[in-house]
Amino acid sequence: MAEQQDPEVPVVPEHDLSEEDMTFVSLLNFTRLNHELFDDILERVAPVIQKQQTNYRHPLSAGLKLAITLRHLATGDNYRPMAYGFRCGISTISELIPEVCTAIVQAYKDEVFNPPTTLKPGDTLPSIGALDRKHIAIKKPANTGKIYHNYKGFFSIPMLALVDAEYKFIWIKLGGIGHMSDSQIFTDSELFE
């Protein structure tokens, strides 16, 4: 016999990732991060992104917000399929991803590697990491036509990021218009100068 749900008690969906889902292999495949790095990021951003639970609201956990954001950054998935996969509203995801990205940047901004400004003849710079672009999906801004429309078929703001060999952010450029290429964003940046 099936258990009856009390009509007076609202059903609150469980938003935390289960321990089974957080195994090393699944976390690595899901977010492209191992447990140690995920936990380090979570420890730094949780105080900023965790909302207080009230009688009217059961907020998403900081771990789930971080997992959603990392999944979006790792795969480029649009918000709609992520909303189905995480059982969250599209508007919720569209608000939390920029919030978590900002928290990550703020948490790691003091660990920026500053390359030398002058080099002596014969000096070479060490390998410092990788430079890549990510399209951050946005709603079409009013009165902009197709300026923010990218080649992937959605509206976006490009983010160009430089990370070091230990996956620490060295530099981030957020801005530009959707159809700009990596080289256009790079040559428009202070890093190019």
Structure commentary:
With 193 residues, the chain is of the alpha+beta class. It has 2 domains: 14-109; 127-193, no CATH class. 36% of the residues lie in helices and 11% in strands. It contains 6 helices and 3 strands; from the N terminus they run H-H-H-H-H-E-E-E-H. It has a 3-stranded antiparallel beta sheet with strand order 1-2-3. Strand 2 (156-163) and strand 3 form a beta hairpin. Helix 2 (35-49) packs across helix 3, helix 2 (35-49) crosses helix 5 (90-108) and helix 3 crosses helix 5.
Identify low-pLDDT runs. 9-13
Strand order of the largest sheet: 1-2-3
Globally, the shape reads: globular
Q: Mind describing the biggest β-sheet?
A: 3 strands, antiparallel
Helix fraction, binned, reads 25-40%
Strand content: 5-15%
User: Total number of helical segments?
Assistant: 6
Mean pLDDT: 75
Question: How many domain regions?
Answer: 2
* Total beta-strand segments: 3
Distance between the termini: 71 Å
- What's the helix-strand series? HHHHHEEEH
The value of Rg in angstroms is: 20 Å
User: Which class best fits the helix and strand makeup?
Assistant: alpha+beta
